Amino acid sequence: MSGTESVATSAAPGDKDTSFFGQPRSLATVFGVEMWERFSFYGMQGILLIYMYFTVAEGGLGIDKAVATGIVGAYGGTVYLCTILGAWLADRLLGSERVLFYSAIIIMAGHIALAVLPNVWGLGVGLILVALGSGGLKANATAIVGTLYAPGDLRRDAGFSIFYLGINVGAFLGPLITGFLQSNVGFHWGFGAAAVGMAIGLTQYSFGRKRLPESSKIVANPLPRNRYGLVVGIGIAGIVVIVALVLLGVINARNLASVVIIVTLVAAVAYFFVIVSSHRITADDRSRVLSFIPLFIVNVGFWSLYQQQFTVLTIYSDERLNRMIGGWEMPISWVNSINPVFVIILSGVFAAIWTKLGPRQPSAPVKFALGAIVMGIAFLLFLPWANGAPNSTPLIAIVLILLVFTIAEMFISPPGLSVTTKLAPESFHTQMVALYFLSVALGTSIAGWLAQFYDPTNEVPYFTILGFIAIALGIALLLAVKPVLALMRGVR
């Protein structure tokens, strides 16, 4: 979700428009581009890892599995790092609507590069473009949805629910289409389908963007003209440094995940320091920011396990899972379509539960703790089939394990940004949301780094250690709920 969600300060054009399931017509425009972006994103990601480690004879690149999983983790972490860049560009230079439009073009270009450019160069160009574009789109789509509703519009929550549905419809369909094409005609056809999906989303958005409210195009905090040169210079210098480090071998495919982890960790520490040491916040603000630290740590732990759906679980689905249904073998990437189905079902169930409980619902620290514990249990559920023969794990086992993954997600992911915005000092609202995305970026990068330790011939230590670490993190937060709530100063 976006770190730049804004609330329109005046009546939005869609106030009396109910042409899209009772919502403003423009919601269909943003819904569509987000759905097709998620279709392309998860469709590509569903076949990305196997494209890297499959042999050249199988249509892949023949990259070592440990290196390939590290690249996937680094790529995923970079997507979330780029949300911060996307938010900055919207706030200081272009506005959310323009950043979203240009980001969609960049994403499509990235998928085209993966589809038509050969070898590792095509992989590198494609992933860089998709990461930049996805970060920009992810950071601003939610902000634009927020501009469609005037303050107090009771349709707002329902509108975001429909928007969230679009995300998961795209995430469900993407791996099905790209996986089918990869299995039957080749990887590049799968990447091509992701490009076509993004092109469809971009086309419908191009027709509908004129109807979006002017508030979606506002630059909230314009960068002074006399600082343009400085920003461009910093950007060019950063690119030169990165290119030099790559050419000198300091940054390479084998340590890419570690590099992203270090960069993200440094950025997070810097963000915390800047906010806590600021003279513009009150004592209560400072206390609330400090209370976010244990939530940040637990969130990192959660995502470092959850995002292994695209690393370890992909290898597991290839080597351990019995994907035969009758006489037909299910494509590997189709496993990635299971989670979105459960998200669609359970998001409504959990929303109803929290609504029913009202003020009696668990506090944010308890939800985070339960999410980490359930995620750890999900990893322990792999143990009954650990060290089995090739393709010996029944498909129903993975379905049930992914159900537990999704239950964990419902405890920790939807409340994440909500509590972050509640704890954020008024002067540092965007920076606090950036911190939330940094925790996701850090966890996603760690997921890729951890996967190098996964050994299909000796799975018990891997699933056991990580499962119990997640459970221990959750229990530690449960034991610290009272002091954390005290630091939160009335926020739950």
TrEMBL record:
It is found in: Cell membrane; Membrane. It holds the Pfam family PTR2. The keyword Secreted does not apply. It comes from the Bacteria. Residues 29-485 form the Major facilitator superfamily (MFS) profile domain. Keywords: Cell membrane, Membrane, Transmembrane, Transmembrane helix, Transport. The chain crosses the membrane at residues 35-54, 66-90, 99-121, 127-150, 162-181, 187-207, 228-251, 257-277, 289-306, 332-354, 366-386, 392-412, 433-454, 460-481. Gene3D superfamilies: MFS general substrate transporter like domains. It is a multi-pass membrane protein. NCBIfam families: yjdL_sub1_fam. Belongs to the major facilitator superfamily. Proton-dependent oligopeptide transporter (POT/PTR) (TC 2.A.17) family. This is MFS transporter. It comes from Microbacterium terricola.
